[in-house]
Specification:
Elements lengths: L8 H17 L2 H17 L1 H12 L3 H24 L5 E4 L12 E7 L3 E4 L13 H9 L3 E4 L5 H17 L7 E3 L4 H9 L5 E5 L2 H13 L6 E4 L6 E3 L1 H4 L3 H13 L11 E5 L2 H12 L9 H15 L5 E4 L2 E3 L4 E3 L1 E6 H6 L11 E7 L3 H9 L3 E7 L7 H11 E6 L38 E7 L20 E3 L2 E3 L2
Parallel strand pairs: 1-18, 3-4, 3-6, 4-5, 6-7, 8-9, 8-15, 9-14, 13-14, 15-16
Antiparallel strand pairs: 1-2, 2-17, 10-13, 11-12, 18-19
Length: 485
């Protein structure tokens, strides 16, 4: 990397504005080709990028190589979304003077919002960072992107930005389609305040996200803020299902909440299960066998340890396995606590995310308590059920979980988010600031477009997407009938 790719907010936003008309006007094959060019370039540079990520993030090589694959997979999925064209939402109603009132020729489609600010996350240096899903989906929408990197991995952010910008230039894109500013807090504030930015995508802490969301809402011209702020992702176990499966439930749960040192936004923070000594014993064994892990940064580690201490200090909380910091290796061992269902209802602070390898066993004696707990939950990215399928309580429990979560699991564990057409990675506040949106999967592109209806516009001035001949071959609804292109 011969020269810094970091620019000032003013320069980055000015370049993005300059590139916006060109980018919005690109045909679908061209835009998809740009995304694939970035993915190919990143894959080709994996041996250069992974060592930098290992130094800055404290994550292992195997994990990071897998994450590069996820990152380039996201870019290629978004290229497929662009090529498919359904995200344009084209609807055509031809003129019909016989109607009351008479209908003019109306053609509706989605267009890009314009320049988007993306705030990179700390826990996925590739997949939710500089070229993560937010960047990929905004580019798919036809929006230039200005990235504010995470302070946890500045060198990696600059290195991968250089690769992406060179790939874009090689594919014929102008400067400004993708830009990078520095990682300073004030830079992020200035970026959200800049009137040339039309939307913000953020993955990070609730405190930081809400501060930026407030700025976006209080601008003279407010803009949408798409923030993913974290979640406790509870898992419910019925009494009928638990019997004889205590070890399997314990192993799966502990493996999930300790994965990546508990630094996944989908970590299960609660296991809601019957009071059962066999389950308790299996959980203690599983947690005791889990290895300590280094956390991403000292600041994240210290905040986690403070969160554990705060929960341990609640009289009604029972510590089943005390973890903590191993000073000799700077690694953190997992902690598991237990409370009864009534206690957690009386202590809503226990329903807040604790980012790191800690989770809470919530024990009930009456399955009706599960419904009360489900009603008390905050907004969630995910919630799940382990059940046989014939329990009568499921008729009430599953709708309650759907009301609170963006993803409802049957069996399994919430860590691991498939990057695909059907994925929903979002949920009601405080999981996100926009419960109707997702930051993972094909639908993520919808955050960065808006619909426009063109009335009686001559064919010569229509976008190819809404012309009668449909030269782009996109799916459309024409005079009420769905046409697949």
């Amino acid at each position: 990397m011969s020269a810094s790719r970091i620019t000032s907010v003013d320069v980055a936003c000015n370049q993005a504005m300059g590139a916006a008309p060109w980018f919005a006007a690109t045909d679908l094959p061209t835009r998809a080709g740009l995304l694939r060019a970035i993915a190919d370039a990143v894959d080709a540079s994996i041996d250069d990028l992974v060592p930098i990520a290992m130094e800055e993030s404290r994550l292992g090589e195997e994990r990071l190589r897998g994450e590069v694959g996820r990152t380039t997979g996201q870019l290629r999925l978004m290229a497929n979304v662009v090529a498919d064209g359904a995200f344009l939402g084209v609807v055509i109603d031809h003129a019909d003077p016989s109607l009351t009132p008479p209908r003019p020729d109306l053609r509706r489609m989605n267009i890009p919002l314009g320049p988007v600010a993306v705030f990179a996350a700390s826990n996925f240096p590739f997949a939710f960072s500089t070229l993560g899903g937010d960047t990929a989906s905004a580019l798919a929408a036809g929006c230039p992107v200005v990235v504010k990197p995470n302070p946890g991995h500045p060198r990696l952010s600059e290195a991968i930005m250089a690769i992406a910008q060179d790939a874009l230039a090689g594919a014929g894109a102008p400067a400004g389609v993708l830009g990078l500013v520095d990682e300073q807090v004030q830079t992020g504030i200035d970026l959200v305040n800049d009137d040339r930015i039309e939307a913000v995508a953020f993955t990070g802490s609730q405190r930081g996200g809400l501060a930026l969301a407030h700025i976006a809402a209080e601008r003279p011209r407010p803009i949408p803020f798409f923030g993913e702020l974290g979640s406790i992702n509870p898992m419910f176990v019925t009494a009928a299902h638990l019997a004889g499966r205590e070890k399997d439930i314990a192993t799966g749960f502990v493996g999930s909440f300790t994965l990546g040192a508990g630094q996944f936004c989908t970590k299960p923070g609660l296991l809601i299960a019957p009071r059962d000594e066999a389950l308790r014993s299996a959980l203690v064994d599983a947690v005791g066998g889990a290895q300590g892990q280094r956390m991403l940064t000292d600041a994240i580690r210290d905040m986690f340890l403070a969160g554990v201490d705060q929960r341990v200090g609640i009289d009604e909380v029972e510590v089943l396995h005390q973890g903590g910091l191993d000073d000799s290796t700077d690694s953190v061992r997992p902690t598991l606590m237990a409370v009864d269902a009534g206690t957690i209802l009386a202590h809503p602070d226990l329903l807040e995310e604790c980012f790191g390898p800690m989770s809470l066993l919530v024990e009930y004696t009456d399955e009706e308590q599960m419904l009360a707990l489900a009603d008390s939950l905050p907004g969630l990215l995910a919630a799940g059920v382990h059940a046989n399928g014939d329990e009568s309580i499921l008729a009430d429990l599953l709708p309650k979980l759907s009301a609170h979560a963006g993803r409802v699991l049957w069996g399994g564990w919430p860590t691991g988010v498939a990057v695909t057409w059907s994925m929903q990675h979002g949920g009601p506040f405080p999981a996100t600031t926009r419960p109707e949106s997702t930051s993972v999967g094909a639908a993520a592109v919808q955050r960065f477009v808006r619909p426009v209806t063109y009335q009686s516009v001559p064919a010569a001035w229509q976008s190819p997407a809404v012309r009668d001949a449909n030269p782009w071959g996109v799916p459309r609804r024409v005079d009420g009938t769905l046409e697949l292109g």
